[in-house]
Amino acid sequence: MMYRSLIRTSTRQLASAARPGTVRSYASTASQPFDWEDPLGSHNLFTEEEIAIRDTAEAYCQERMLPRVLQAYRDEYYDKKILEEMGELGLLGATIKGYGCAGVSNVASGLITKAVERVDSGYRSGMSVQSSLAMGGIEEFGTQELKDRLLPEMAKGKLLGAFGLTEPNHGSDPGSMETTAKPHPTKKGYLSISGSKTWITNSPIADVLLVWAKYSETGKIRGFVIERKDCPPGTLETPAIKNKTGLRASLTGMIHLDACPVPEANMFPDVEGLRGPFACLNSARYGIAWGVMGALEDCITRTRAYALERKQFKGNPLAKYQLVQKKLADAATDAAFGTLAAIQVGRLKDDGKTAPEMISMIKRQNCDKALSNARVLQEVFGGNAVSDEYSIGRHVANLFVTQTYEGQSDIHSLILGRAITGIQAFV
Asked: Which family does it belong to (predicted)?
């Protein structure tokens, strides 16, 4: 495939830029030197293709995305050309087979996500919404006409997607959504959709919006593909949400629909209720579980470098002190365990053997551990952590959001508790 040849070419050209070389060997009783960047040797579990994809993704992210992120975060700016660049490398909708997508393994897709979030969670959010939520939803539930018409351009990053489920009054309780779809009173073959969605990544720039609404004819939740170019003035508005304290390098907004006409053919034909949106969310949650490990690993790398360079008390580097070493050891352990858990679930996902609760478990655990460890590592920087040039504060702010969206950790605790006990405790 073109994608695989591009991967090989890109890997040869860019892999050397993926991460600066450092000496990682330390005294050990084992014959194999300990690699602090991959403590449990997870790379041994990857195929050659997965390693090539990882190296290409990391090279692109470090060489092309990292130089932009600090100013983008300061300005609350998202360059939508990033998605086009990802499309050129075959990184969008990577697990989808056909339609110009790469059709790679779920582990390979996770490695892409991890590489992106190593730079910034906001950049990963923009990619995840495009790939897992918008493209993934259309690929799994859309008509063949929608797939053929939209997915190839979305894979190139030429058409941008958004996913509208959360509402102003209903976050963790999507079953109570107020957005409705009903037969259009004057346009035959069309539906009229009204309602509002909020905290929607990519909505201000999206060309294709996958919106979930209650269908008046059945009272059931259905999925609808809304194409901005076909919406009459005043029926669709997507204002940006400004002045965020996290995910400032991604674009977040609302979706306001006022009797927006949508062709009946754009309604997903065979899925009703929350099964549809939750299936999409599970794919995105799986990606988040990978991504936050990338953010945590970047925190570890930056903290280690700072602790070795910064000297306090008799000219000693901070890394000499026991409390600092414990912080690094805890974080490296959780990052290694979290990565192995994500690999395991990815392999099961490829084999069609995952339960939704598995994804809840790794999403909850990895997000919680990434956030708690990042907060502790931030302490090593002292007052310097306040400066955005050190990046650790940006990661901490972002990781709080990742713990919250697509199922806050307490919600995933209840999902797991229900599976363990057989008793539902949501209400």
From this structure: Belongs to the acyl-CoA dehydrogenase family.
Pair (400, 309) in one structural domain: yes
- Percentage of the chain lying above the pLDDT 90 cut: 81
**What SS3 string covers 30-73?**
CCCCCCCCCCCCHHHHCCHHHHHHHHHHHHHHHHHHHHHHHHHH
State the average pLDDT for the chain: 91
In a domain, 377, yes or no: yes
How far is residue 147 from each of residues 16, 127, 320, measured CA to CA in Å?
37, 19, 57
How much of the chain, in percent, has pLDDT values that exceed 70? 93
CATH number, domain with residue 56: 1.10.540.10
Provide the domain limits for residue 297: 275-421
Quick one: DSSP state of residue 232? P
**Residue 29 placed within a domain:** no
Same domain (yes/no): 177, 247: yes
Euclidean distance between CA atoms 104 and 246, whole angstroms: 31
Segment 226-240 mean pLDDT: 95
Instruction: Say what the pLDDT of residue 17 is.
Output: 44
* Dist. CA 149–CA 257, nearest whole Å: 23
Same domain, 109 and 215: no
Give yes or no: residues 116 and 10 share one domain: yes
Give the global pTM. Answer: 0.88
CB–CB of 297/118 below 8 Å? Answer: yes
Task: List active site positions.
Answer: 406
